[in-house]
């Protein structure tokens, strides 16, 4: 018997990322453009910038961990 894989979450859009981090959409695009490793991993899907929610969750957890270590 095969196990069903968990349902996939849709990719996050720039407006969703901006809302999640309470920053302007321009800031989210700047994070990607400057490649400064600020913000979660983002990538292009055609002309659209997207992020996986798993990467966002991982980035958020890393930020909490780094804050506690400081």
Structural class: mainly alpha
Treating each run of at least 4 consecutive H or I residues as one helix, how many helices? 3
Biggest sheet architecture: 2 strands, antiparallel
Which range does the strand content fall in? 5-15%
* Strands, total number: 2
Residue stretches low in confidence (pLDDT < 50, at least 5 long) are none
Quote the distance from N terminus to C terminus: 47 Å
- How many domains comprise the coordinates? 1
Rg from alpha-carbon coordinates = 14 Å
Mean of the pLDDT scores? Answer: 89
- Bin the helical content: 40-55%
The helix-strand sequence is HHEEH
Question: Would you mind describing this structure in some detail?
Answer:
There is one protein chain. The chain is globular. It has three helices and two strands. The chain has one domain (14-69). Helix 1 (14-21) packs across helix 2 (25-34). The mean pLDDT is 89. The longest helix is centred in the last third of the chain and has 17 residues, at 53-69. The relative contact order is 0.17. Strands 1-2 form a two-stranded antiparallel sheet. The protein is mainly α and 70 residues long.
């Amino acid at each position: 018997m095969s196990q069903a894989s968990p349902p996939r979450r849709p990719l996050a859009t720039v407006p969703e990322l901006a809302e999640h981090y309470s920053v302007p959409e321009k800031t989210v695009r700047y994070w990607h453009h400057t490649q400064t490793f600020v913000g979660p991993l983002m990538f292009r899907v055609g002309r659209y910038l997207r992020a996986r929610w798993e990467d966002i969750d991982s980035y958020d957890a890393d930020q909490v961990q780094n804050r506690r270590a400081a």
